Amino acid sequence: MARRRQAARAAPEPIRATSMWRVDQVFLTRKGQRVEVICSLVNDRSGLRNLSVIAPTEDPREAVRHAARFIAGKGNVSTARNARVRWTREQSTTLQDELVRDEQLEDDFQDEFEDMLAAVRDQMR
Known about the structure:
Layout: H1 2-8, E1 21-31, E2 34-43, E3 48-55, H2 60-72, E4 77-79, E5 84-87, H3 95-99, H4 103-124
Parallel strand pairs: 1-4, 1-5
Antiparallel strand pairs: 1-2, 2-3
Helix pairs in contact: 2-4
């Protein structure tokens, strides 16, 4: 009888070999003469993952673009729409600074991400 109960249960969902991720937030931190960019990714199964890259520049705009190319080049990151760009807590001077989003950097990240993603997709065809 125990075997029938087990058979009646729904089969577990198969483990997916790959998941599509989206960029949720981007954090910037100064590391000496360079900028570290940490991208917080979320997948379609509510999984979380952080990818970081240290850009070879101290210009935040170029660092964000460098990170966008790096992340989009991974191949399994599908979108960066509505990604928020902020400086990390260590870089902020007041509590209000922690809440401030840099909309210009968000636009730069989004544009560079979409350009690189389009290039990757073209290359795959």
